[in-house]
Amino acid sequence: MEATKDEEQLHDEAEEIRKETAEGSPELAEHDRIAELESQLEEAKSKALYAAAETQNVRRRLEAEKQQASAYAATQFARDMLAIKDHVDRALAAVSEELRGDKVASQFLTGIEATARELEAAFNRQGITRITSIGEPLDPHRHQAMMEIPSDEAEPGTIVSEMQAGYMMKDRLLRPALVGVAKKPD
């Protein structure tokens, strides 16, 4: 610490001698002025480079945000449409074979099935995919365990039942799959 004070004192003395000498020597004063201007120029260059880099970073960040906003603009609409898909799927699953054999009912069912296919095609166009669940290990990022089911056939932690399908939009979770997970029987 003391060496630093001595160095500072020597530096201050040298600066004082330099100032006294510069007063009597215009060449030295001009040299000092040029050195000061060069230092200012270096500082200005450094600030300009920093500002340019910062501007580029802001532009990249805004481009990425714009791209994400565009890619996921339909997220809330897609979530709303999942409820409609659930209702259509439940309606089709509830139709008995006897009702499918009825001529009038089968025409009605053909229309509902066409609607379900069109809805599925719209989902595919938007990058909305159903999450695979049955037989998969529980993934807390894609599945929500609703219950444990004793099972001798499946490894503990494996999904054995799906109460509600889950969906992804590109790489984002729209809705987790509600599942039942195997556990060792008691």
Topology:
Elements: H1 2-24, H2 26-71, H3 75-93, H4 97-101, H5 103-125, E1 128-130, E2 143-150, E3 159-164, E4 167-169, E5 172-175, E6 177-183
Helix pairs in contact: 1-2, 3-5
How would you describe this structure in keywords?
single chain; 186 residues; alpha+beta; three-stranded antiparallel beta sheet; three-stranded mixed beta sheet; 5 helices; 6 strands; 62% helix; 17% strand; elongated
Give the % helix: 55-70%
Task: Give the low-confidence spans.
Answer: none
Largest sheet: 3 strands, antiparallel
Count the beta strands.
Answer: 6
Helices and strands, in order, run as HHHHHEEEEEE
Task: Count helical runs.
Answer: 5
CA-atom Rg in angstroms: 36 Å
Structural class from helices and strands? alpha+beta
Biggest sheet strand line-up: 1-4-5
Q: Which whole number gives the mean pLDDT?
A: 88
Q: What is the general shape?
A: elongated
Terminal CA distance: 72 Å
What portion of the residues fall into strands of 2 or more residues? 15-25%
